[in-house]
Predict the structure of NAD-dependent protein deacetylase.
Amino acid sequence: IDDDTPPLTLRERSLTAVADFIKSGKARRIVVMTGAGISTAAGIPDFRSPTTGLYANLSALNLPEPEAVFDLSFFRQNPQPFYVLARELYPGARYRPTVSHAFLALLARRGLLHMLFTQNIDCLERAAGVPAEKIVEAHGSFAGQRCIDWGGGDGAEEGEGEVCGGLVKPDIVFFGEALPRAFFELSPMTKEADLVLVMGTSLQVHPFAGLPNMAEEETPRVLFNLEQVGSFGTRADDVMVLGDCDAGVRKLAEEIGWKDELEKAWREL
Ligand code: APR
């Protein structure tokens, strides 16, 4: 690969071209955006897949509409459905990171991960070994919790002792709530990316869904997803690897020459 390697556009926009780009050492600041699709292989349902998605399976909770389970005003009047779901979703040690999570940790270990923006609340990126300072949990996580009335952590945690009797909610961003400040402060890092990977997301929820469009025009964007989503396909350097994200990531790792390293890292999780 010589220095005037044409960008992906001038060559077929394929996984091989992406692998060559990474092998050339030109991709040093990779920004990644992930969604629930990278955790389905771990046994955590995503939200919008037609039959297996969470929103298709909440009918037992007779919600006004599925998203109500993450709606703050609904939660105030009836927190039960969320608590039922939280027991389902709570990461704990029950779930093992997927090959896709292991790949992100490998990028970080090789010093190539500029930043990972995730919509997931399962903390599997951390469990896979991605350093906390390289992760922006745009929709929060179970890592912390607080009373929705006065915003403090629950009494015991804050040492106040008394509990105000308000509802305690994990620091998951509900519809109608602002995303963490870190998201807005760090999202401009997408402009610094020399490669953007988007994995396992329907890109339906803003402002997160606007992230891939923040990449510079000449920055290749690669989608690992069962289906085409967002603005993918509208830019010259978009590459779409449609199908299971673990299979796509395995193929990319193999073409780069990281197959054994990835499989070993994943086996050790
Ligand atoms: N491989 C590749 N893609 C997959 C896989 C897989 N194994 N499994 C699912 N997908 C794809 C689905 O086809 C879909 O396009 O991942 C995407 C998951 O989309 P959603 O279920 O909408 O999840 P996500 O995009 O993370 O949702 C965003 O919505 O409800 C809110 O706050 C919640 O963070 C969540 C946000």
The chain has a mean pLDDT of 90. The longest helix spans residues 245-256.
